[in-house]
Each structure stands twice: as C-alpha cells, then as structure tokens.
Amino acid sequence: MLNGRRVVVTGGSSGIGRSLVRAYAAQGARVLAVARREGDLAATVAGTPDGSTGLVAADLTTDGGRRAVETAAEHAWGAVDVVVHAAGTLGPVNDQPGSTLEQYPPDDWYRVFEANVSAVHFLHQRLAGLLARGDHPAVIGVSSTVGRTVRARWGMYAISKAGLEAWLDILDQEWAGMVYSVNPGGTATPMRAAAIPDEDPATIPTPDDVAPLFLRLAHPFCPEPSGSKLDARDWLDADPWEGLRGDGLSA
Ligand SMILES: NC(=O)c1ccc[n+]([C@@H]2O[C@H](COP(=O)([O-])OP(=O)(O)OC[C@H]3O[C@@H](n4cnc5c(N)ncnc54)[C@H](OP(=O)(O)O)[C@@H]3O)[C@@H](O)[C@H]2O)c1
Questions:
Q1: Of the residues 189, 208, 229, 233, which should be mutated to test ligand 1's pocket, given the most ligand atoms within 8 Å of the CB?
Q2: What is the C-alpha to C-alpha distance for residues 244 and 218, in angstroms, rounded to an integer?
Q3: DSSP characters for 153-212?
Q4: Rounded mean pLDDT of 16-40?
Q5: Which pLDDT band, with edges at 50, 70 and 90, does 251 fall under?
Q6: CATH code for the domain of 134
Q7: Rounded CA gap, 208 and 218, in Å?
Q8: 53: Cβ below 6 Å to ligand 1?
C-alpha cells in the first residue's frame, strides 16, 4: 500500500520506531531508520525486505547528526515523502528522584527538551527542502497522553510533548503538507518500562499493535485532515487502509 513512499523514521533502533520501520518497509516503502545506536539500527534493518531500508546512525540533538540524515536522504532519493519523529527521551518521572518541578535536574531539563522538541524542529528545517520535492508530503509527530493533558511528576517530558503539540499546530498552519500528531498511548517499550517499572508489559499494546494508524497516515491519499490529533489506540484492530486503494497512488 505504500509502494515507493520515501519515509524517514527517527527512533528506529528501539520500541515504536523500530516497529514502524519494519511496518513501512513491509508495505513497500523505502525507509531510512535513524537513531544513535548503529548495532540496534542494523538489527531493525535486518527485519525488513532486502534493499528497502537504510540506516543513519546519528544523534539528532546535534547539527552534524541532523545533517547526516539530510545527506543520506538526498543521496538515496533526492526527496522525502514522510517524516515520522518517533525519537524521544523521558527524564525523571513519577516517583523517581527529581521528577517534581521543584527538584527537576537542569541536565535532564535541557536534554529532554533538546531531544523531544529542538531535534524535531531543526531536523524539519534540514528536511524541508526534500519534503517540498516529495509526493503528498506528511510530517507525523509522536506525542503523548501527558503532552495533551499535562500531569504532575512528568516534568519536562510532559512539557516537551505539549511543546511538540504546539510546534505541530504551527507547522500545520504554515506548511502545505499534511501534519499529524499521534499519541501512541501506553506501549510496551523500554521507555514505558522505565516510566512505569511495576507494570506488566503483557497488559498493554506492543509497538506492532500501534503501527496501523502510522501506516494509514503515510499513505499519499490519507483522508485524515492535516492538523489532526489522533490516538493509535483507536486503530489497534482497525483496517489502516479503509477507504484507500491498493496501488499507493490514489484514494
Ligand atoms: N512507549 C510508550 O508508552 C509511549 C507513550 C507515548 C509516547 N511515546 C513516544 O513514542 C516515541 C517512541 O518511544 P518508545 O517508547 O519506542 O521509546 P524507546 O524504545 O526508548 O525508543 C526511543 C528511541 O529514540 C531514540 N533517540 C533518543 N534520543 C535520541 C537522539 N538524541 N538522537 C537520535 N535518536 C534518539 C532512541 O535511539 P538511540 O538510543 O539509539 O539513539 C530510540 O530509538 C517517543 O517519542 C515517546 O515519547 C511512547
């Protein structure tokens, strides 16, 4: 359904990003998987059809890392159709030391903001020219329940995701492409285990379970309006292609 779509997925070394890289590639997309850990990216790519997926080992909080993504996409495709900003980091939350605003450590404050907001913004600036040459381009931000309604003891993680929502709203107003915010909802990943260590991961959706909405939003004729704030939980058992034809070229 996504034949030939050129998709950049950040956070491709783990959790939700890893599942999305594989899900997009399995639908015929060409994918660039981005994160810092090269070995884990290689493991992600190993689960995709031959030749579909490349990797860029890059720290997205640095300009050099973001430039490496731009260069790889330029060389591979000369254009980008979809960017999924799934990379993210947590900082202290819940009953962990430093999770209140009064105690929140400065290093975590800046680190989480850099990864969850600044990296998205400056990577978008790097990729904007390639998106302008893309086919029905889309930007998908990965938000959070606590970014839509902030919560005590979620500190900069909640603030950064609320900031990401605002950033996506402005992008939607300024840019002609499609802009989506997706809240995956609690999903069994290393980040979730760090946030809520007592939770049994078998009781919440897996990263593969939350992929259908992300697949739908990458389709060139996805009917969801730009600016939509969506919940992957609403699509766990749904057909991502409802109302869309199979050639990836038309509605
Ligand atoms: N899991 C949940 O319940 C949940 C709920 C709501 C929202 N989310 C959001 O979903 C997204 C994916 O989270 P996840 O649960 O899948 O977490 P995860 O398994 O911890 O994955 C986080 C990913 O972000 C990458 N990353 C972090 N900092 C980076 C940096 N500076 N440069 C490049 N890549 C970086 C990591 O790769 P490297 O370490 O290799 O760089 C990793 O691939 C995040 O935005 C998260 O906030 C998750």
A1: 189
A2: 12
A3: T-HHHHHHHHHHHHHHHHHHHH-SSEEEEEE--S-SSHHHHHH-TTS-GGGS--TTTTHH
A4: 98
A5: low
A6: 3.40.50.720
A7: 16
A8: no
Residue 131 domain-assigned?
yes
Give tens-digit pLDDT for 61-88: 999 999 999 999 999 999 999 999 999 9
Q: Please say whether the beta carbons of 28 and 53 come within 8 A.
A: no
Which one of 24, 104, 110, 157 is the catalytic residue? 157
Angle between helices 63-76 and 119-132 (to 10 degrees): 20
- Does the annotation mark 110 as catalytic? no
Ligand 1: which residue has its CA nearest to atom 8?
Answer: 144
Q: Where in the sequence is the domain holding 217, given as residue range(s)?
A: 6-235
The closest of 156, 12, 31 to 93, measured between CA atoms, is 156
